[in-house]
Fold:
Amino acid sequence: MARSIDRDLTRFKDIVRGKVRDNLRKYITHGEMMGRKGRQVVSIPVPNIEIPHFKHGQRGGGGVGQGEGEVGQPIGRGQDEGDGQGQAGSEPGSGHYREVELELEELAEMLADELELPRITPKGQDSLKSKKDKYTTISQNGPQSLRHFKRTYKNALKRLITSNEYCPDNPVIVPIRDDQMYRSWKTVHDPQANAAVIYMMDVSGSMTDDQKEIVRIEAFWIDTWLQSQYDGVQTRYVIHDAVAKEVDEDTFYHTRESGGTRISSAYDVARSIINREFPPNDWNIYCFQFSDGDNWGEDNNGCLKLLMDELLPHCNLFCYGQVESPYGSGDFIRELRRINDDFENLILSEIDSKNAIYDSIKTFLGKGR
Structure:
């Protein structure tokens, strides 16, 4: 039977989840959920929840309706009369927040419900297999740390009973070597579906810190969803101005360069990563490109050809998000619209501010590919 405190804790958690779910769009837009991210949980601030309770007055203050007074007179301690302006006090404020932890899997479910995301049907389930050791058998040999106490005890008891050595009045059972039983493992091969995610971002001088913050928030939610759909997710990062290179996550979000922009250089690096690490027949490949639309100094037709011939045929999705910059031209998305109807896996989104992140995520992931 569940204890009263357990029921109260469950009810409190349900209330917290409801608060998060009700305000999920706000969290998605402004990134409050990204405060502290661990391997399996994330800490987020939610408004403090006050549980109703009785508050007793001062001892000796009399009961209800006792004492002298006039109709309409305030009961209890009131504030001094005046114009409402006074000095700062020592009382706590009203804007309290409580940090709560949610599992990323639960967060992904909220995201799916809020954005009405379809489940992804992955490819490559039978091509990739992982080895796992499962303790499913029993053996007569093994280390003492894996000794199966219950089976060992039963063997010793059966031995004593069959040999008439068991004494009910003095039930001392001491196992011998032949009684010992141990848990044993069996290596099994589990099919799994893996995903490779390649993020590409223009880091030329026209991409400001605000645009990179938009990319960081959107990538967090994309990762959260994809990790809930696949057994394993491998992430790679590519930055470029006129020249592209593969970098780690921290460098991806904090690098700022200057100079021109050649988008085809990022496509070349992404193609190399796929050929080197992620065979398309076995991996579910997702490419997310973020830029302000500049592509100076190169032929757009050649860039589109590289995209159509080397990347789009191998990707579950290729998502291009164009962030609005006060310095960028915004021309490249118009070039992509020329081929958009020919490729179902090419998804385009314009992200003019943080408020557009919500709709952009739904645009990118809404097809369930």
Residues 199 and 237 are 5 Å apart (CA to CA). The longest strand covers residues 128-139. The chain has a mean pLDDT of 77. Residues 209-229 form the longest helix (21 residues).
